[in-house]
Every structure is written in structure tokens, then in C-alpha cells.
Specification:
single chain, 344 residues, alpha/beta, Rossmann fold, four-stranded parallel beta sheet, three-stranded antiparallel beta sheet, 45% helix, binds adenosine-3'-5'-diphosphate, sulfotransferase activity, P-loop_NTPase
């Protein structure tokens, strides 16, 4: 097997996962069918609900609504994921800024090998999700051995709540991004509509209020990382989408300090932070061919451009009545009471 170095991929990570795969190939430990069959009896006993679009089935596993295809991945992650101390995991609920944080973290962490202003930066030819291995995607498919072949430090991505990846804290570092659940609901509706145009917003809204969304309930997902961040701030960095929008440069500096790679005076002089912010900005990423064409996953026929819709906060006012907004706000506030976390 060729080595990563022989492919002109840096021997130090993070390397764009898509590039590394060219060398590693697909490495099956067990087939997705074997993994599913291994846990089929357990999965069949779990309470179930349909996702808002009525297509995918969710299962209530250890208090979280996990897509049934991801339950075996959650079990495998819980039992087998072995973090390295210098790993970084980007964690979030879908539609809360995952794509942006993937891009910012990759650009920040890999800036020595891939200067952000360079014309051949991986983020100019790859969708941000192609740069990071998606943990549940790999564990679902029995492909976790591919992670072992990546050079350190590795940068990975997950939507799983923290109890599904318990070894991540304190085993490595986690960067988490949350978002106002009202905007998350609106973003999710627009995204799901790309597959099912007649989906009513009210259906998505009710599923968010009930907690039955993939990887949710929203509040339990957010709190799993929030509590870890207050207990171990050097292990979990808790970010907010709205804060990233307000001051991306400040948050990139925070991120760099957290991963142990603060910007040097020379980098400050060279404007490296601004280059990263610009490279990962909504307007820039949205305009790139890598993000305008193709699909997210061969199995998920959603065009990549669905990841770049509006890129703003507060769009909920255009979709919710004041009553709906205060109902969701109250549900969330009740769940967050006493935790030190608020969304208002
Ligand atoms: P909207 O639908 O409100 O526009 P995720 O990546 O977790 O699926 O989140 C998608 C949301 O993040 C979408 O929100 C999308 O437009 C927004 N987004 C994607 N890239 C962004 C960027 N570079 N800057 C700001 N927002 C971004």
C-alpha cells in the first residue's frame, strides 16, 4: 500500500479525508449489513418514531433519537472508538453550523501544510464535509479502520450526542457549535424540503418541540456538550453559531488557542486569521464549484448547495408566529433551567 507521504499528502494531520481515502482505499472491518444484523434484535426493541419527512425511522436509544441505521454505529462508537490525545472532533446537531465549523477548524488546524490564502487550498476544491471523516458514517459502514490510518493530529466530525462517543471527553478535544433552536428548525425544514417539497413547516416544528429529531432532543444534545465544557473547558470548546456570525475572527482565535495552535505574531502580521475567515465565509464557500455541484453522499440525494442557504440568524421570524416562537423558547428554557445555558 502506498504511504500517505508518497501521495504528496503531509505526514502530519489533518489531511483532507477525501485525499487520504485515495491512498487508504475503503477498509471494511465488517460490512454495513453485518453491523446492522449484529444489533438487529436490540434495535427492534427500541421505541420508534418517524423523522419529520416521514421517510427515515428514528429509534430512542439511551434517551436519544438516533436514525435506526445509526444505532449500530452508536453502539460501535461507544465500544470501540479510541481517541488519540491530539485528536479534535467537531460536534453539532445538523443545521447548526457544522459545515462552517468543519471548514474553520480544518483551515485553522491544517494552516501550516495548507496556507489559507493559497490558490490550491483543499477547501477550494472540496466540500468541507469531504475534508473530515464523519464518525457515524464510518462506524455504520464498518469502516472505522480507516481512521487508524490517518496521521495525527486527526480532525473528525460527528452529530452524535456526547454519550454516544463517551471516550471523546477527556480522551481528546471537542469543538461544539449550537444554534438558536428556532433557526435550526427553519434551516432543517428548508433542507428536508429539498427531498420533499410539500413538507409543511409545522410538521418539522412539532418534531423539534417533541424532541423527536435526529440526534435529539435538541436540549439533551446541547446539554451533553455544555456540561462537559463547563466541567472540562480545556477539553470541550462550546461555540454558538450566532457568535461566529457576530465575530468570526475572535472565534477563530479562540479555536486556535483551544487546539493548542495560537496564531503567532508573524501570522498576525500576515493576516492569517482574516484569510481563514474569508476562505470559510458563506459567500466564498457558496460560490465554489465544489459546493454548487454534486451530492452530499451517494446515499443521500441532497445537492451540496443545500448546505449553503441563507447563512444568517433570525430567519425564524419569517416562518413562525409569535406564539410558535414563544412556545419553543419556553420548552427550551424549561429544559435549560439551572444549567447556566440560555438561548435568549
Ligand atoms: P440556513 O439554512 O439558516 O442558511 P449545517 O452545516 O449544520 O447543516 O448547517 C447549515 C446552516 O449553516 C445553514 O443555515 C447554512 O446556510 C449555514 N452555513 C453554511 N455555511 C456557512 C458559512 N460559511 N457561514 C455561515 N453560515 C453557514
Amino acid at each position: 500500500m502506498p504511504t500517505l507521504a508518497s501521495m504528496a499528502i503531509p505526514e502530519e494531520g489533518p489531511v483532507p479525508f477525501e485525499d487520504a481515502l485515495v491512498v487508504i482505499g475503503t477498509y471494511l472491518v465488517s460490512s454495513p449489513q453485518q453491523r446492522e444484523e449484529e444489533h438487529a434484535d436490540l434495535v427492534a426493541t427500541l421505541p420508534s418514531a418517524l423523522e419529520a419527512n416521514g421517510v427515515k425511522k428514528l429509534r430512542l436509544y439511551q434517551g436519544f433519537w438516533i436514525r435506526d441505521i445509526h444505532v449500530p454505529a452508536a453502539i460501535a462508537l461507544q465500544r470501540q472508538f479510541e481517541p488519540r490525545p491530539d485528536d479534535v472532533i467537531v460536534a453539532s446537531l445538523p443545521k447548526c453550523g457544522t459545515t462552517w465549523l468543519n471548514a474553520l477548524t480544518f483551515a485553522t488546524m491544517a494552516r501550516k501544510a495548507y496556507p489559507p490564502a493559497s490558490a490550491d487550498h483543499p477547501l477550494r476544491r472540496l466540500n468541507p464535509h469531504q475534508c473530515l471523516p464523519f464518525l457515524e458514517g464510518l462506524f455504520k459502514g464498518g469502516r472505522e479502520a480507516e481512521l487508524e490510518l490517518l496521521p495525527s493530529p486527526r480532525l473528525m466530525n460527528t452529530h452524535m450526542p456526547l454519550p454516544m462517543v463517551p471516550s471523546a471527553v477527556p480522551g481528546c478535544r471537542v469543538v461544539y457549535v449550537c444554534r438558536d433552536p428556532k433557526d435550526m428548525a427553519v434551516s432543517a425544514w428548508h433542507f428536508l424540503r429539498r427531498l420533499q417539497p410539500d413538507l409543511a413547516f409545522a410538521v418539522v416544528f412539532e418534531s423539534v418541540c417533541d424532541g423527536a429529531v435526529a440526534f435529539g432532543p435538541v436540549w439533551d444534545h446541547v446539554l451533553s456538550y455544555w456540561r462537559a465544557s463547563t466541567a472540562m473547558p480545556d477539553k470541550v470548546l462550546f461555540l454558538r453559531y450566532e457568535e461566529l456570525l457576530r465575530d468570526p475572527a475572535k472565534n477563530v482565535r479562540k479555536l486556535a488557542r483551544f487546539i493548542g495552535m495560537p496564531f503567532s505574531a508573524a501570522e498576525d502580521e500576515a493576516g492569517t486569521v482574516d484569510s481563514i475567515v474569508q476562505l470559510c465565509s458563506f459567500g466564498h464557500l457558496k460560490g465554489l464549484d465544489a459546493n454548487k455541484t454534486g451530492h452530499l453522499d451517494p446515499l443521500l440525494p441532497v445537492p451540496r448547495d443545500a448546505l449553503f442557504r441563507n447563512g444568517a440568524s433570525g430567519d425564524w421570524v419569517n416562518h413562525m408566529t409569535p406564539e410558535m416562537a414563544s412556545r419553543l423558547d419556553k420548552i427550551v428554557a424549561d429544559k435549560m433551567r439551572g444549567t447556566g445555558l440560555t438561548f435568549q
